[in-house]
Amino acid sequence: MAETLTLELVDPERVLASEAVEMVVLPGVEGDFGVLPNHAPLVSLLRPGVIALYEGAKVTRRFFVAGGFVEVSEQGCTVLAEGAEPVEELDRAAVEQALKDAEEDLADAKEPSEEQRARLERAVAIARARLEAVTAPQA
What we know:
Blueprint: E1 5-10, E2 15-21, E3 23-28, E4 31-35, E5 42-46, E6 49-55, E7 58-65, E8 68-73, E9 76-81, E10 84-86, H1 92-108, H2 114-135
Parallel strand pairs: 1-9
Antiparallel strand pairs: 1-2, 3-4, 3-6, 5-8, 6-7, 7-10, 8-9
Helix pairs in contact: 1-2
């Protein structure tokens, strides 16, 4: 049997995964990166995107995360997500509508403050990443 690491994926409401995996690929702010057993310790911010869990060369589960951070240590990989959900639970029509709504909210904002503009742009970025997650082919 291949060596594994323990993945803990939590968002503010629940634990989504707590399991042994052979590899996990995470959406880091500077690009996707993989974590294997015995990885060097690190802490990284996550951008909106997909976390893929692997057994061998096969993706076994995929989760969309709205952002957050990950800590890799001797004990495994812990992801604290701003929001997370299994990709298979995403409804494409609802995701497309959420993106349309977020883009309209941004376009309709009349002279938004910097904080409001940043919040609206973040909502659009998350909605686009969710749509990409639901439309991307399985690895």
